[in-house]
Amino acid sequence: MIRLVAERLTADAFAPFGFVREIPKGGLREGPFAPFGDDRPNAKVTTTLISCSARQGPRSIRDIERHLHGSQFFIPLGGELSLVVFPGGDEPDLAKGRAFIAAPHQAFGYHKGVWHAGVAAAANEAAVASLLSRDGTPDDVDERKLAEAIEVVFL
C-alpha cells in the first residue's frame, strides 16, 4: 500500500501540479488572474459547490481523475482541505504522489492534465467552490479506479 503524509500547501511545493493564491487580508485584492483555461472552443465554465464532511484518521484514495483540456480552480468557502496529486502522463506515477492540506485562506488550481483525487476535508467540515470548463463530452474528465487504495495521513 502507498502511504502519503500530508504537508502544508505552499506555492513552491505545489508548482509542478498547479498554482496557489493566498486570499489577501486587510481589504486588499489579489488579481485579476486567469485561473483556468480550456483548449476546446465549445467548453463553458461551470461551478460546483462541494461540502466535505468531517473526517477522523487517515484518508483512503480509491479513485483519481484528470482534465485533459482544461485546468480546475478551487475557491475555499471554509475549513482546511485535503488534496492529493500525482505526476505522470497517460498513466499516473502513484509512487510519486503528494498530499497537501490547504488552509482556509488558500485558493488553488490544477494544471491541465494533472492526476488528482477529489478534494476532502482535512479534519473538520470544509466547503469549496470548484470552477471547471466542460463541453459535455466524455473528454471532460479521465477517471481511473485504483487497484489498491492509497492512504493519506495527517500529522
Q: Architecture in CATH? A: Sandwich
Give me the oligomer status: single chain
Taken as a percent bin, the fraction of beta residues is: over 45%
CATH class term: Mainly Beta
Global morphology: globular
Low-confidence stretches: none
Count the E strands. 12
Gyration radius over CA: 15 Å
Structural descriptors:
7-stranded mixed beta sheet; 155 residues; Jelly Rolls; single chain; 5-stranded antiparallel beta sheet; mainly beta
Question: Can you offer a commentary on this structure?
Answer:
This protein has one helix at 11-14; strands at residues 2-8, 18-22, 44-52, 59-66, 72-78, 81-86, 98-102, 106-110, 115-116, 120-121, 126-134, 142-154. The chain is globular. The longest helix is centred in the first third of the chain and has 4 residues, at 11-14. Helices cover 3% and strands 50% of the residues. It contains one helix and twelve strands. The strands form two sheets. Strands 1, 4, 6, 7, 9, 10 and 12 form a seven-stranded mixed beta sheet that branches. Strands 2-8-5-11-3 form a five-stranded antiparallel beta sheet, with no helix packed on it. The chain is mainly beta and 155 residues long. The two termini are 18 Å apart. It has one domain: Jelly Rolls (Sandwich).
